C-alpha cells in the first residue's frame, strides 16, 4: 500500500484501525472463532490525561484448554500518517499471556498486571525483549491468590508469529510465570533464561502459566 492509498483509505473510513486489524489477523488462524474483548475505561486512557495506556485486551479460549490473552495498545492501532512505513510499529510488540484457567473471570488479575507493565513501558521508556525477566518483589504475581509464581520471563509467543504491518514490525511477547528460585538463578546468570524456557517447554510446550505450580525447573 502506498502512502497515497493509505491516506485515501483513512479519509474514506474514519473507523479504520489497521494496527488493530493486524493483531486480530495474527490470531485468526489459531482462533478462527475469535475471542472476547475487554475495553479499558475511555476516560482513564493516557490520551485523555489518565494512567491507562492500553485500549483493551482480548481473551481467546485455546482448544488445548487454556486462556490466551493479548493486549491492544503497545503498537499503533488507528489511522496515523506519521506512523506509516516505520521499522517498528509503536513499541514493536503486543504482550500476551497464557493462563491455566477455564473461565475469563479468573484472568482479570492478569489484565491489570499487563496494564501496569504497559504503563511502565510508556512512562519509563523501557521495553521488553525475549529472555528478560520481570521481578515481582517476591510475592505472588496474582494479587488475590497465594502462589509460588512470583515473577515473569519474556519469550516470543509460542504460537502467534510476528507480522509486518504498514506501521512496521509487530511481534508478540509472551509473559511466562516463574518461581522465585528460577528468578534468582537467572538474575545471577541471565544466560540461563533461555535454558529455563527450554526446560519448561519439555512438558509445557505452550509455556502456559499455572499459578498452582510449585516446583522449579532449574
Question: What's the helix and strand layout?
Answer:
Blueprint: H1 3-12, H2 18-28, E1 36-39, E2 56-61, E3 67-72, E4 88-99, H3 108-124, E5 133-134, E6 149-156, E7 163-165, E8 168-179, H4 180-188, H5 193-201
Parallel strand pairs: 4-8
Antiparallel strand pairs: 1-2, 2-3, 3-4, 5-6, 6-8, 7-8
Low-confidence stretches: none
Class computed from helices, strands and strand pairing: alpha+beta
What Rg, in angstroms, do the CA atoms define? 18 Å
Calculate the mean pLDDT score and round it: 95
Question: Regarding quaternary structure, how should these chains be classified?
Answer: single chain
> Termini separation (Å)?
48 Å
So what's the overall shape? globular
Tell me what portion of residues adopts beta-strand conformation: 15-25%
Major beta sheet summary: 8 strands, mixed
Strand tally is: 8
Number of helices: 5
Can you write the helix and strand succession as a string?
Answer: HHEEEEHEEEEHH
